[in-house]
Amino acid sequence: MIRTLQDVFDRVLDTIAYHLTTYVPPLVVALIVLGLFWLVAKLVRWLMAKAIKGAGIDRFLSDSGLRSMFDSAGRLHGTPLIAGAAYWLILAGGVLAALNVFGTDLTSRMVETTVFLFPKAVTAGLILLVGAWLGQFLGRSVLVWASNEEMPGPRRMAAATRIVTMFVAVVVASDVLDFAPRVFFAAFVILVGGAVLAASLAFGLGGRDVIRGYLGERKAGEQEDEKSLWNHL
Amino acid sequence: MAQSLLPEEAQKAVESVQHADIVIGIPSYNNSRTIGHVVQAAHAGLAKYFPQFTAVIVNSDGGSKDGTRDVVLGSAMQDSQLLMLSTPLKAVHRLSFPYHGIPGKGSAFRMIFQMAKDLNAKACCVVDSDLRSITPEWIDLLLRPVLFANFDFVAPYYHRHKYDGTITNSIIYPLTRSLYGQRLRQPIGGDFGMSNALLCRYLERDDWETDVARFGIDIWMTTIAVAEGFRVCQSFLGAKLHDAKDPGSDLSAMLMQVVGSVFALMQEYDSAWRTRNGSTDAALFGFRYDVGLDAIQVNVERMLNLFRKGGEDLSEIWELALRPDTLRAIVKLTKYSGPVEQFRLEDELWVRMIYEFGCAARDNRLERGHLLRSITPLYLGRVASFVVETAEMGAPEVEQRIERLCLTFEDLKPYLIDLWFGTKSAERKKEAPEARELET
Known about the structure:
Oligomer: heterodimer
Number of strands of chain B: 10
Structural class of chain B: alpha/beta
Shape of chain B: globular
Number of domains of chain B: 2
Helix content of chain B: 40-55%
Number of helices of chain A: 8
Number of domains of chain A: 2
Strand content of chain A: under 5%
Distance between the termini of chain B: 70 Å
Shape of chain A: elongated
Largest sheet of chain B: 8 strands, mixed
């Protein structure tokens, strides 16, 4: 009985020793690697914040409208943005390097998958960013134009423009990531087809008179303008 | 003549003419109806007032389809038709070429200036091709201060209907005056005289491919002249009667180009306007007299509707440009539902709004086109307010009213300096005036 208990106890100790000798050294190494990457990331962020002249980047952020898109108060600046991106990129590399230390199938697969997906994820992220920017730009263009041209429902038109643009970006991004591309593509076709059909019906049936009246008013307005000698300049 | 921007046929013409003391430029696009009169007036002006000078009349055309260029080349003024006290000694050359580049008045001017420079002209003037009230005296009034009084830039001074030139009266004149301290009453009048030195300065610049190529050209020319310290004056030309300018053209595009040019130049010349306080009269040539003017119909209801609609739709754009207190006052005013005759967009609120838009354009808080086009409903609200306020006023009272607006622009310049340069000198915390409670 005592021998049996001792055998069990020995086996438990062996298992613990096995796990300790198998996992603790890699864990310690992984933590050291992660710590080193963290230090390097901090150093790089500090150096970049000191070295990069942010004026050009700030101008790009302003001119492209990215600044107002993310921060209407205008506090978004290029240098901390780039330094922060470098920091997180190095830290992510550190996490992958630390996982790779374990050398198990699971961690190897995780690292491989991440490395394989990384360019696609970056591409998809950029597509979504461009989509968001384009959606905002087109939305505002439609809003200002429709309001100045006395079109009905400028805000709704602008919102629809933003949604459609963003949806197109999501479809393209999902295709890049290979994430349910058929579902998104089918949804896109249904949405666009439905919108065209609805617009056709609206023009053909219910909206016919409204559109006719609206166009008539516009034409009358234009004729009135042409008769006027009013010169704003 | 290296690096000339002229098309080949224009270069050949320059080589053939070789030299001219005076160049008169006439930009055109489908103006066959009116340009003949303008060319004849220019020709007569040269024959009558500058017979001793060699001169060239240049038509810079934007690709007219209505035979504008044929009219220019065919509408010679017979000297015998004029009562001449002296016989012209030199012939006047008439040239007409299509310009290259972005379609617009600015590109047309660029070709004219280049020809004037290549011909080594002492003075150059430009006149619009749609003028119905131009007389030979205009040529004298635009060129004489340059040729005989050493002025570099001659701006026009017209009698205009009280509702004519509303962008000039509500934004461009008061803003330019408060910034650069010169009272040039028609800074975007379109008919100017200039010296060789000034037109060479214009040609040196590299911003011709911007809004300057279109409606921005007039304020660009005026601003460079006043900001860079050229000697400027005005000439009284009488009434300005002309065809409606691009009646089908988009008001918001026009506003964007003109106001956008002012804002862009504000950025370039901020060190010049920062230190200038108040304003001084510019010398005025010509004999002033009253003239009858065409009546102008203005639809106030429609303007107010656009103003209200702007308040409903564009506040998300305005909030990126305006300070919260200014935005609140504007939005409140867009909800005004009282009698039209009592609607007012007060001077102080309007001036703050313009200054804040100028700063927003400088900071690129949003795409420039969106920002500038979103001013359109605000501008129409201001014009509606001006129209109802001056409905019963005569020309002198209206001029006084515009003077009051100019003084408000000047008084609030420290506010602009504060916003622009971030100094603490002005009354930063002072609230914009709330929209007047007008509902009864």
